[in-house]
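Hi U.,

Before I forget, here's the chain from the pilot set. I'm dumping it here mostly so it's searchable later in email.
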Amino acid sequence: MQSTPRPADAQPVISLRGATASLGSRPVLRGIDLTVRRGEVVALLGANGSGKSTAVRAVVGQVSLSGGDLSLFGTGFKRFRDWSRIGYVPQRTTAASGVPATVREVVSSGRLARSRFGILRKADKAAVERALTLVGMESHADVSVNALSGGQHQRVLIARALAVEPELLIMDEPMAGVDLANQEVLAGALREQVAAGTTVLLVLHELGPLEPLIDRAVVLRDGCVVHDGPPPEAVGQHALPGHDHVHPHAAHDAEPLRTGLLS
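Structure:
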């Protein structure tokens, strides 16, 4: 997929420079640079432990950087407040199935960032319905999330992020543990967002049905960027040797469900 030409002076949507971070006493990010420009679809690739999830969690404020600089939409992270511009899909976990809520209620929770006093207006409700339709879950809107399959649950998490109508969509392993049929549905939903101009940052183990959408692949190894360029070259030279691939039906250890961007 070819990127749309952009002005050379356009502010990056995400700019990480010399970013370092540790989990406990273990260094995880070792001075990475990552730039995502408006309208781009960028995939973060790498083996388990390479720092992919830590990088995106740093972008949304869940991991503190110990060094380097981060800006969002041209604003330094410490001064950035406009979180309604960002939709975030964390790693899925079976623990999320214990949430006592309907599909529509979970998706509506993603819209709260744009609502006033937690009250959903007509436009908010329309955005929720559109997000449900995008992921093919409109017929399950009043079903408890406890009754969903893993793939359906992942659709709900993505719909929750899409309900925000984000300018930037960040997804951490959106296809992990999801069967092929659900992967195709999710790829279709993402395709529509990209066509509408949404900027996307994805953490992936393998490109799968998302490959045609990817503009650039950034490959991490041991907390360092070892490739930043076209996806086919990235996969061929860096990701495959010693790379941990996940079977579409495999179980996946992941983050607990978070109902807010920074919760």
